[in-house]
């Protein structure tokens, strides 16, 4: 199991509503801060303060910024699955590719600093991309199935 898979499983294990609220706020705030500057330039103290929590609250949920980054990638995977599921459910065959492309460009542009940090992280961790690869394969299978159905195959 990759560190991202572990992060995803960890977020699901949080039992207390308050603890989940803190976890979610830290993730959400990190993505907001990444719209302004690079991941390495964001301190844990600043993140905790901007999220409205203490540094201790951060360390109660994450052992390090690396573990936070794993949780960010796990959140990304969850967000992309939700978005793609919605698009596949609502787009017509005629608009599917355009809707997917519009969503893709907007999403990745908004999170470009996250992806820059992901590229840097992947140089140290060869297994880093595995969860993203799995999701890409799933997405490709969905798209092929949809096109095949349309073609009557």
Strand content: under 5%
Rg to the nearest angstrom?
17 Å
Low-pLDDT sequence parts: none
* Overall strand count: 0
- Secondary structure tally, helices: 8
Helix/strand-derived category reads mainly alpha
Overall outline: elongated
Describe the structure.
The chain has 153 residues and is mainly alpha-helical. Helices cover 78% and strands 0% of the residues. It contains 8 helices and no strands. The chain has helices at 3-13, 17-34, 44-51, 55-61, 65-90, 96-110, 112-124, 130-151. The protein starts with a helix and ends with a helix. The model has no long low-confidence stretch (mean pLDDT 90).
Please outline what is shown here.
The chain has helices spanning 3-13, 17-34, 44-51, 55-61, 65-90, 96-110, 112-124, 130-151. The protein is built from eight helices and no strands.
Features:
153 residues; single chain; elongated; mainly alpha
Fold topology:
Blueprint: H1 3-13, H2 17-34, H3 44-51, H4 55-61, H5 65-90, H6 96-110, H7 112-124, H8 130-151
Helix pairs in contact: 1-5, 2-3, 5-6, 5-8
């Amino acid at each position: 199991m990759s560190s991202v898979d572990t992060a995803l499983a960890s977020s699901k294990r949080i039992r207390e509503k308050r603890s989940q609220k803190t976890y979610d706020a830290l993730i959400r705030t990190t993505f907001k801060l990444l719209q302004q500057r690079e991941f390495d330039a964001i301190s844990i103290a600043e993140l905790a303060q901007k999220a409205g929590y203490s540094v201790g609250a951060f360390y109660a949920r994450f052992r390090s910024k690396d573990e936070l980054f794993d949780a960010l990638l796990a959140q990304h995977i969850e967000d992309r699955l939700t978005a793609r599921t919605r698009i596949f459910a609502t787009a017509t065959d005629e608009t599917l590719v355009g809707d997917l492309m519009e969503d893709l460009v907007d999403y990745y542009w908004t999170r470009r600093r996250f992806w820059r940090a992901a590229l840097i992280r992947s140089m140290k961790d060869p297994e880093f991309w595995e969860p993203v690869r799995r999701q890409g394969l799933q997405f490709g299978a969905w798209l092929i199935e949809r096109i095949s159905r349309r073609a009557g195959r």
